[in-house]
Amino acid sequence: MRTAWLLSRSLVFLLVQAALTVLFGSLAFLTWPLPPVWRIRLIAVPWTRSVLCALRLICGIRVQVIGRENLPDAPVIVLSKHQSAWETLAYMGYSPRPPCFVFKKELLYIPFFGWGIGLMRMIAIDRSQGRNAFEQVVRDGLQRLQEGRWIIMFPEGTRIPVGQTGSYKTGGARLAIRTQMPVLPIAHNAGECWPKNRFIKQPGCITVSIGPLLSSRDKTPEMLNAEVESWIEAEMRRLNPERYPPNTTLLKQATTISLATVDKTTRA
Prior knowledge:
8 helices; Glycerol-3-phosphate (1)-acyltransferase; seven-stranded mixed beta sheet
């Protein structure tokens, strides 16, 4: 009985999400004379917030945020845990600055959704181009940062099931070092409610934890990437200790990062 109820709620949400996507995707073409930032404010933000509101009302999924005080009102590179489709919606709808996602160009071909994001001046890459693709990310990313936007990347590259850890790629860390921008690490457990490749949405509360800014200065990509991974994965073990095997090394490294950030802020 419960499964049938969850299935029906998820189906209703899917229909509402599809209707909202068609509506706002169609309206996006009316904004093409406007700058990309205004397209985001007028189309992308209302669309994502409407979808998330429907998710809360229909599927019973709530959100709590830890570490709001760490959000900078300045350009930054966000490196986030990737478990679900939820975080892409949330970051688009609630980032303090207009976000810019780095994504594979194939998403542009999705009707309405792809057409809409194509008008938002994101960074669509061809993964088959290898190093040339990364140079495009650096070139376009620097422009977006100069516009005051946030660059949002998922270092694991793909959605990782709850309780697992993917391989952290250095692309985001390399971009931060090349542009001399700080990194904002974010952990969350959205996969508990909106699991990867699962149609049924589970009611509950998603917890988002926003970490301290990590400086990219005087670091190698490997060093910065290790800091990001240590903080995010240690935080995942704090959020859901029952899902992840304990790793005292990660916890110690994350504590060291946090204490170093506090000390640096105090001295400043």
